Every structure is written in structure tokens, then in C-alpha cells.
Predict the structure.
Amino acid sequence: MMRRIALATLCLLFCVGRELAAQTCTLTITTLSFGTYSGTLLNGTATGKVTCAGGWDIPMDAGTGVGATETLRKMTGPNSATLNYELFRDAARTQNWGNTTSTELTGTGNANITVYGEIPAGQTVGPGTYTDTIHTATTSFQVTAVLPASCTLGASALSFGNYSGAVLNATSTISVDCTNTTPYNVGLDAGTATGATVTNRSMTGPASALLGYKLFSDAGRTTNWGNTVGTDTKAGTGNGAVQTITVYGQIPAGELVRPGSYADTITATLTY
């Protein structure tokens, strides 16, 4: 007959001989390092060793994350942000590893064990290092994951249409997708026209003729959009989803240039 005898105050490892008094058992578990989490499902494992002469069972507590449970644990990162994860007893990751009789791992004698971890997909939290501590039986072990800051950038064409000599306005959009809480800056260079600057850009047309235009970061077209971070770039903070930024363009009135098609290429730079 197996009896359960407490060896620790939090989560307990029990070891009892079939007909003898309780025996001393030990348990060691390595760190469960998930590595880098990028928003897609991520698996990881930790390994452990049980040294015991009799039968044993190993519970896992909810960890130290605020709001964590035995089925949905939480690593804690920068500014107390949390990253959800789960622990399982089986490689298929279908059998939760908890702290009640039906969810503990059981066995007899010396054994090597594996803790199977999984971070669900689709979590948008700030970049940084996330950690948790799981207490189990006579020991505890760390759970870690790293979320790097990352951003992507896209842009649509700015088409002014037909210019007749009057002021002509047009807009385009820039799409920024940055990890949650990641600060960023978007800069626009001077373009490819000869002599262009970030305050006086030009499109190039027939026979290298130039048609001047300007780019602004506000709808009132008063704030020039340049390429110097902290001076004339467009700043924002990522939220884990695509954010759309409007580019406001303007061709001033009174430009006398030969007819034809005029074009320029602007390079947008994302700094984060």
C-alpha cells in the first residue's frame, strides 16, 4: 500500500516502500528554455531525474505569474507583462501536468523524466526576457523565453495625378508592424532627383526636367517629413498589429515644366 508523506511545503514528491517506512527521494529538473518566441506556437522541454527506491508522484504548481493556474501558467516579463504557456506530461502535449492526483506524474524507482512545454500562438506582448519558477516536489526549476523586438515596413505609391499649375495634394500610406510596446521611427529620404533634399524633393521627367514637391507627416501639411530621428521622422509605438501611417504630399502652385510623366523614388527607413 502506498502512502503520501509530505517532504516540502509547496509541491511535494512522495516516496514510500510497499511495506516499509517512508524513504528519501530526490528530484532534479533542468531549466525549460523555450528560446525565441515570435508569435507562432513554440514547444520546449526540460529533463529531470528521480532517485527513489519506492513509488513516487510529482506535482507541478501554477508558478509565480500573476493569474496563473495549473492549466495556464504565465511567465513574467518587462513591465509585469505576462506570456502564457502550458506544461504537459506527454510528448503529444495532451495531458496537463498539474498539482492534483489525476494530473501528477507517477512512477516507481529511479527514472528519467521529461517536462513538455508549449507557448500558444498569437500572443502580442512586449519584447524582452520572460521567466517563471515552477515548484515541484523537493525542487524547483526555471521557465524562460525571449521575445525580440521586431518590425516590418511596407508602403503604397503616392500618385498626384495631373498637375495643371495649381496646388496639388495627394496621399499614400506606410504600413508598420512592430512587436507590442516597441517604439519606432519612420524616416523618408530625399529621393533620387538631382539636388533634392528632404525639404525640397523633385520628380524627374522628360530631358531630366524637375517637378518640385514636398512630403509632410500631418494633414495640415506643415510638418516636413525627413530622415533624422528625433527631428523630422514620424514616431510611433508598436501594438503587435499593422499600423497605417499617412504620407501627405503636395506639389506647389506655379511650376512651369515641360509636359510628360514625372517620377521619384523615396526610401523609407524604419528605426526601432
The chain is about 0% helix and 45% strand.
